[in-house]
Amino acid sequence: MLGTMALMLRGLAAARDEAHLTAAGLRYSGNRRAVRSRALLNILACISEDHQPMIVALAALTALGGASAFFFVMAHANECVDKRRSTWLLVAALVGGLSIWAVHFVAMLGYASSVNLSFDPAITLVSALLVAIGFLLAVSAKDGRTGGASLLAGCIAALSVTLMHFVGMAAIQRSVTVRYDSLPIAIAIIS
Q1: Which residues have C-beta within 8 Å of that of residue 141, sequence separation ≥ 6?
Q2: Which end of the chain is more exposed for a tag (fewer CB within 10 A), N or C?
Q3: What is the pTM for the complete model shown?
Q4: What is the pLDDT of residues 139-162, one digit of tens each?
Q5: Cα 168 from chain centroid?
Q6: Which residues contact 125 (CB under 8 A, 6 or more apart)?
Q7: Helix/strand/coil (H, E, C) string of the chain?
Q8: pLDDT tens digits for 164-190?
């Protein structure tokens, strides 16, 4: 399946190259939907061409297990007496945040780079702490049990995952200079 996807995406190399130019500000068609589609193609190409398929599968299983555990613990927190709810919310925050961090880190380990990569342990730990704290804030906001509280919790969780991602990427130690395009980063944060 990944091989077929890779062949399809290689056929779209012109669109991907155009997306890089657009993201770099060299040419902009004015069509945000087209830019988002091209950004998605870049992500899919990166996953199918630049990552080891077995590690991607492991990351997917980690995501499935982590999400299942998070929702199980959240359900338990919602059903227990108020006296124990804060403890279960703390456990849910740790399970949710650290499982997302684990998915991200496993996927990073599966990246097939042409240069040697290593990870700064302190920055990697900070990325894990940030997403765990973010999820603690999110589940605490969700405990308000209103629609607005759910929206706020979702925004906090999404921002904490975004922050974890970019801090985790900063933990990569490499012998090359990395340049980030601001438009795809902005799209990732807004989406």
Answers
A1: 149, 152, 153, 156
A2: N
A3: 0.69
A4: 988 766 677 888 899 899 999 999
A5: 10
A6: none
A7: CHHHHHHHHHCCHHHHHHHHHHHCCCCCCCCHHHHHHHHHHHHHHHHHHHECHHHHHHHHHHHHHHHHHHHHHHHHHHHCCHHHHHHHHHHHHHHHHHHHHHHHHHHHHCECCCCCEEECHHHHHHHHHHHHHHHHHHHHHHCCCCHHHHHHHHHHHHHHHHHHHHHHHHCEEECCCCCCCHHHHHHHHHC
A8: 988 988 888 877 777 777 887 787 777
